[in-house]
């Protein structure tokens, strides 16, 4: 391979000289990470605006003429797909994965920097194709983010001409991009760890990203397969998923296909996708909690086992998204059982986070606030998941706002809380400056309380039976007037939360210029990324010598040591060696 | 069970010598990294074809499915054309292997012969597959007239695309070695390409067997998968 920058540095590293090679066609993992992140945040903002438009319609029906039933469905679809795939997956793995992996394991770069660069540009292409669907005749697809056939490609669904084709093509391109990035992440973790960095000395962030990437490599093919087959159905008239149909009084040429087959494929991707987003978030929040509670993570080994266990189990729960599609009762029983089993390792993680806080020296910094906020939102989202995992409870709730509230709490708000925690936590590393603490706290409280103001009442209106996916409720006897008032209040809260993200953006850019210089390791963290010779790290990360790792990433509050932490690259002292293991660190 | 052993270690203990390093990391590891990456690629491609095959078996149980083999009028009741294509791909694989042996022994002529004949046979395979498509079309087996036909066209197309991807990578490898003028560095990447070729030959054999199966065989397979 060309342009190899592997840890042993037998190949001379050439610092990029021109603006183009430094910031545009860059092969440096940190620049690629920032390119990934900015692109993801840009599409994320588009999706945020779409959700605002949806909320305006739901909160104040018959008020906004420019939101038609078709455009409402298009907003729903694009919001969902962008947030799950193009924002969260790209930001967590392409952004944080790229930035953190080489730094945290002590490598100079990814093992295949050229492929890494290609991964970003192909991702950008997928985003452009997706965004193009806003400008084609008929607009973007309005099939719902799950794109179920037959309606996704039939006339009558918004965007059934061009929108759906662009969506499927864009997804296929995204998967190519992800696979190139993913190969890099796993290979780098396996192959490019520095001296002394055993697998079990890796910070949990890396374990989360590593496992999520393997999940992605195994799950995205299912989406690719279903996208290809649906494209064939749409363009070439095959009948993989399309049953015999009468549409607008006309017999269509399709016959005999199975729409449920698509659902199986889609959710075989879709459920692991939840964990592709969640596992890196689990990892990052563990590191933020341990650092800001000045305490080793409780039960490190159990945390790793839980990540691996959740990864494995995530492939055998997919059909719990399909209870209402109709299935053999034994199937439903099986998938309900596996769904409840996956709650066990997840609960272990939650307990361990709480126990990490227990008797810790908790610093209520902005990243810590977001991390603690995450424990709340994730527990709430997870508990409603236990309800919905049961067939009999899911059936009546499946098409209501209860489900919307559940999945937004568990995989919308929670990963986003971690993302904010992570951005604030590593901002001094990315930029060399501290963010504004007051603005950060204002951002936290508005986001955290605002998220509850949005989603708690949403659970309630879901229990009342308010159906999801509807443009307007109309006159419905079983829905009380109060549900409409609640909807209006949810909309107002959602708009406030949406606008409060401007504080975050302002803080990011303001602090870039006016923030206090952060210096080395402002949080007193142990992991390697904070031990670089330069902040922010330069090309090649480590100067002349690679770091050597002597210990795990969680030596906080070690007795008899001057500071309350020992970085991973500090040798073990004789005193420590004889003192044995630190108290309370058993898994 | 190294994996479980790894997961069982207790990183908070400082056993062993003070300052001991756990992983001895030295020497250029890029070949090893490429091997790992290739393994992951093979897994990803396997998953893709596995899922296609699973949907094939599920779809085969719907009444409109007519297998391409079994009755005398079906095109693959006599699969001789497919055997010719298979032979081409097998020759390409063998030629790649020859190229690797040449590169290992430092015999440049043997390497060049191996690689160039591999490229020839591979391109011929793709042309032969396209010709087979034409043949099926002329017999009235269109892509949308039956799900079995759809699967045939789709799976051969996806397989062909993977082969073309392999050709692009192989071209890249050869040209890089050419420009660097370092034939001795060809061995490792060529070995990876060859593994990929063998793998795609394997995938093709599975697809061949599946697509030319009689209805009874397909039904039995589907029953085994619970469809």
Outline the structure in words.
The complex is a heterodimer of chains A (587) and B (227). In chain A, α2 runs antiparallel to α3, α4 runs antiparallel to α5 and α10 runs parallel beside α13 (437-464). In chain A, strands 1-2 form a two-stranded antiparallel sheet. In chain A, β1 and β2 (250-251) form a beta hairpin. Chain A has 15 helices and two strands. Chain A has a single domain (28-241, 259-579), classed as Cytochrome c oxidase-like, subunit I domain (Cytochrome C Oxidase, Chain A, Up-down Bundle). Chain A is mainly α. In chain A, 62% of the residues lie in helices and 1% in strands. The longest helix of chain A has 37 residues, at 69-105. Chain B has a single domain, classed as Cytochrome c oxidase, subunit III, four-helix bundle (Four Helix Bundle (Hemerythrin (Met), subunit A)). Chain B is built from seven helices and no strands. Chain B starts with a helix and ends with a helix. Helix content of chain B is 72%, strand content 0%. Chain B is mainly alpha-helical and 227 residues long. The chains are: A mainly alpha (587), B mainly alpha (227). At the A-B interface, α5, α6, α7, α8 and α15 of A face α1, α2 and α5 of B.
Low-confidence stretches of chain A: 1-7, 583-587
Task: Flag low-confidence runs of chain B.
Answer: none
Given helix and strand content, the structural type of chain B is: mainly alpha
Biggest sheet details of chain A: 2 strands, antiparallel
Secondary structure layout:
The complex is a heterodimer of chains A (587) and B (227).
Chain A: H1 19-24, H2 29-59, H3 69-105, H4 113-132, H5 163-191, H6 204-236, E1 246-247, E2 250-251, H7 259-292, H8 300-313, H9 329-357, H10 366-388, H11 391-397, H12 401-431, H13 437-464, H14 481-514, H15 574-579
Antiparallel strand pairs in A: 1-2
Helix pairs in contact in A: 2-3, 2-4, 2-14, 3-5, 3-6, 3-7, 3-12, 4-5, 5-6, 6-7, 6-8, 7-9, 7-10, 7-12, 8-9, 9-10, 10-12, 10-13, 12-13, 13-14
Chain B: H1 2-8, H2 30-59, H3 80-105, H4 108-138, H5 147-180, H6 187-211, H7 215-224
């Amino acid at each position: 391979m060309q342009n190899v920058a592997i840890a042993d540095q037998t190949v001379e590293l050439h610092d990029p000289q021109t603006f183009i090679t430094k910031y545009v066609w860059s092969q440096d993992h940190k620049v690629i990470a920032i390119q990934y992140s900015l692109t993801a945040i840009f599409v994320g903002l588009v999706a945020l605006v779409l959700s605002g438009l949806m909320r305006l319609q739901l909160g104040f029906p018959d008020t906004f003429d420019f939101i038609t039933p078709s455009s409402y469905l298009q907003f729903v679809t694009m919001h969902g797909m962008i947030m799950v795939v193009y924002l969260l997956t790209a930001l967590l793995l392409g952004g944080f994965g790229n930035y953190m992996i080489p730094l945290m394991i002590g490598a100079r770069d990814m093992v295949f920097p050229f492929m890494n660069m290609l991964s970003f540009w192909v991702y950008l292409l997928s985003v452009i194709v997706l965004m193009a669907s806003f400008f084609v005749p008929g607009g973007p697809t309005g099939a719902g983010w799950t794109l179920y056939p037959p309606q996704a490609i039939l006339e009558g669904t918004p965007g059934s001409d061009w929108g759906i084709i662009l969506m499927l093509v864009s997804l296929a391109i995204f998967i190519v991009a992800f696979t190139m990035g993913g190969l890099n992440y796993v290979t780098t973790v396996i192959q490019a760890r520095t001296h002394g960095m055993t697998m079990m000395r890796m910070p949990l962030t890396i374990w989360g990203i590593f496992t999520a990437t393997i999940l992605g490599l195994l799950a995205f093919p299912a989406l690719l397969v279903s996208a290809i087959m649906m494209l064939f159905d749409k363009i070439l008239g095959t009948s993989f998923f399309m049953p015999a149909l009468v549409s607008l009084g006309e017999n269509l040429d399709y016959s005999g296909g199975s729409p449920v087959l698509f659902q199986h494929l889609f959710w075989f991707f879709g459920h692991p996708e939840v964990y592709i987003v969640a596992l890196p978030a689990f990892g990052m929040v563990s590191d933020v909690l341990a650092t800001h509670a000045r305490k080793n993570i409780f039960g490190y080994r159990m945390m790793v086992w839980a990540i691996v266990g959740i990864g494995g189990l995530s492939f055998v729960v997919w059909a719990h998204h399909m209870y209402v599609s109709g299935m053999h009762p034994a199937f439903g029983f099986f998938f309900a059982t596996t769904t409840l089993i996956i709650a066990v390792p997840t609960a272990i993680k939650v307990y361990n986070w709480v126990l990490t806080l227990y008797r810790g020296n908790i610093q209520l910094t902005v990243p810590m606030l977001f991390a603690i906020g995450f424990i709340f939102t994730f527990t709430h989202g997870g508990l409603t998941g236990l309800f919905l995992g049961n067939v009999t409870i899911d059936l009546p709730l499946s098409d209501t706002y209860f489900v919307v509230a559940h999945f937004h709490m568990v995989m919308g708000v929670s990963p986003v809380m971690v993302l904010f925690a992570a951005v604030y936590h590593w901002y001094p590393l990315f930029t060399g400056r501290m963010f504004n603490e007051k603005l950060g706290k204002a951002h936290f409280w508005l986001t955290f309380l605002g998220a509850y103001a949005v989603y708690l009442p949403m659970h309630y209106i879901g229990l009342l039976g308010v159906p999801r996916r509807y443009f307007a409720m109309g006159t419905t006897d079983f829905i009380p007037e109060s549900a409409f008032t609640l909807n209006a209040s949810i909309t107002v809260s959602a708009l406030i939360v949406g606008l409060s993200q401007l504080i975050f953006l302002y803080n990011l850019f303001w602090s870039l210029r006016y923030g206090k210089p952060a210096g080395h390791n402002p949080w007193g963290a142990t992991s390697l990324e904070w031990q670089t010779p330069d902040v922010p790290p330069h090309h090649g990360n480590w100067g002349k010598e690679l770091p050597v790792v002597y210990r795990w990433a969680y030596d906080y509050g070690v007795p008899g040591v001057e500071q309350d932490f020992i970085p991973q690259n500090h040798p073990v002292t004789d005193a420590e060696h004889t003192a044995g293991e630190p108290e309370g660190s058993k898994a | 069970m190294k994996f479980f052993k790894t997961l069982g270690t207790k990183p908070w203990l400082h056993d062993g010598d003070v300052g001991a390093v756990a992983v001895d990391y030295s020497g250029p590891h890029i070949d090893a990294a490429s091997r790992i990456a290739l393994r992951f690629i093979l897994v990803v491609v396997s998953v893709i074809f596995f899922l296609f095959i699973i949907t094939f078996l599920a779809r085969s149980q719907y009444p409109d499915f007519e297998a391409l083999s079994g009755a005398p009028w079906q095109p693959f009741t006599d699969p001789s054309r497919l055997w010719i294509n298979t032979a081409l791909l097998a020759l390409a694989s063998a030629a790649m292997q020859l190229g690797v042996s040449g590169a290992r022994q430092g015999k440049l002529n043997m390497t060049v012969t191996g690689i160039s004949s591999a490229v020839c046979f591979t391109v011929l395979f793709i042309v032969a597959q396209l010709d087979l498509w034409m043949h099926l079309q002329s017999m009235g087996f269109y892509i949308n007239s039956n799900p079995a036909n759809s699967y045939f066209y789709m799976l051969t197309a996806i397989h062909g695309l993977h082969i073309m991807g392999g050709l692009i990578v192989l071209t890249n490898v050869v040209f890089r070695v050419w420009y660097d003028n370092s034939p001795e560095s060809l061995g490792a990447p060529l070995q990876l390409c060859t593994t990929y070729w063998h793998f795609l030959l394997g995938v093709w054999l599975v697809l061949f067997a599946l697509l030319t199966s009689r209805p009874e065989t397909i039904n039995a397979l589907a029953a085994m998968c619970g469809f």
